[in-house]
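Protein modeling request. Please complete all fields; requests missing the sequence field cannot be processed.
Requester role: graduate student
Desired output: 3D structure, token encoding
Chains: 1
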Amino acid sequence: MNEYINLDEKNINEEHICCAIGDPKHQDGVDKKKEWIKSKLKDGHVFRKLNARGKIFIEYEPLDTAWVPISGKNYEYIYCLWVAGSFKGNGVGRELLEYAIEDAKKNKRSGICTLVSKKKKPFLGEKKFFEHFGFEVVDSIEDYELMALKFEDTETPKFNENARSMKIDSGDFTIYYSNECPYVEYEVKELSDYAKEKGFKLNFIKIDSLEKAKNAPCIFNNWANFYKGKFISNTILNANALEKLLK
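Delivered output (247 residues):
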């Protein structure tokens, strides 16, 4: 029988958060991610992981307070469901998702939703996996789809209008990011140093409040790359990746 742990004020400092384990260079990002989780616990934020050393977890919270440009009445939002390596194919993902669904029902939510894509993309769940549990597409922007599992016949969630254009006014290379992801702090520093060395204009815009998250110009705010005013990817870049992309 699999054993799981939910992070809380008592254990969060000692427990790893799965995403970035075993790499000291990301420690600052891990610390900031933990602080972000602590600030969200009062909102009903849940980070549930397998009691094992690996990337096996689900993270979700009420949509009203979730840092995503999505609106919906009385829904739960899944930020991330990740099962990596040898843990795949053992029913762990199913158990994590079933827990989130039952938790949402226990809290009398109208449904639960998450972001996927038509084609496989980084940092997004697999559409077919959620379809197996009855999730349906309720809104879309380009290749990205919002899926929802409704528990009752209510209005479904949708992307906020500000996120639909996936464009910004600036033509400079611009990155929106937040401490939802533990990888970003290190990469922001590396890219800042690279841009300074090359004399390259690079803008960083940090999403550091619920208001900014709900009004983001893109469906991603943990990391979103814009160039010449258009969204190009949610891939977290290092200096080498940025240099290749620009070429």
